[in-house]
Amino acid sequence: MTSYLAPESPRPYSIAAERYFQRLNFATGLSVANNERIYPLSKCRFGAQYEKELCTYLAKHAEVNCSDRVCLVGEESEWATIIQERLFLNKPIQFIDCKLHHDAIKEQLASNIFDRIILFNCLHHINHVTMSENIPKLHANIISPLMLCINLLRKALIPTGRLVIVHREPNINTLPLPVEVIETWYNTDEHSSRIIEQLHGEKRPNLEFLWEVETIKFTMQKLSWYNELMHRTFYPLPLCNQKQIADGLRLLNETYFKYHQGLLEMYDRLLFLTVQTKFEPVKSSVSLPKASQSLLTSRFRRKPGPLPTGSHEKWDYKMLVTDEVTQLLNINEQRQSSKRNLFKSSLPFI
Asked: What's the CATH number for 8-277?
């Protein structure tokens, strides 16, 4: 029968391992835990520790104020409320689904003007079909789809606004994902080095690009991690089908996590790209009075340094000394001037 039906793919493991994997209950809503306490109602799939560190990095790169109007473009809508609560924003964050049509995204962006726009793990949706449908072919051949998307988002920003792109990239990945998921992810995703090189090659002189890789440490239960993988809840899992995820989970269960129970300590490395307009310092046209100008010039005038000396110049170093010091110096001079007799000794002979 085996030769007729062909061998199974992938090959089955031991009976105990297969039975254990079949008994796992991949139900939604499993509690996420860490070392301090359990968060059964955590809004973030990776726990409160993950959302705290991610919002800290967003505040660092976006420099958000409490009164700023923020727009979030991505796939996971729950991050809008998380960022609003963590950054203490007065106004609700507008969420735009990146899976929408280009015209629908353009209409939502044109309705408001924002101080900050965050592009969260959705660079894989930026392609020639979605982002450059209504753009002439001449511009599409010169400018890349990523640059077209950046130009579209910058139109909805104020002049001093900032665009922050958060991207999970396969080359710097440290999450324990199945091998087939990483291979599919690597073949379909555009890597960070190409993205940075592309942006610097096509950037305008008035734009400024800043990039940095941040590492987020978090802990999670093993069964909760299996649950997230099985339901394909985060990027890049939607790039793979359900069979690839299930086969990869069986492989993880028999290799990395075979003898591991309880909490898993993981690290998520994210690329933060910041796009902002470069402003040159404006020279003030206000003329100061002559008295204040003289004060400023005298205050910031450079002190004269020592004159250069050469081999032909000699410096006389003199210092006032007391009488006690002069007596000691005279004694030393007398000792040096008196000639010593080698055959004369001060020690008495017996």
From this structure: 3.40.50
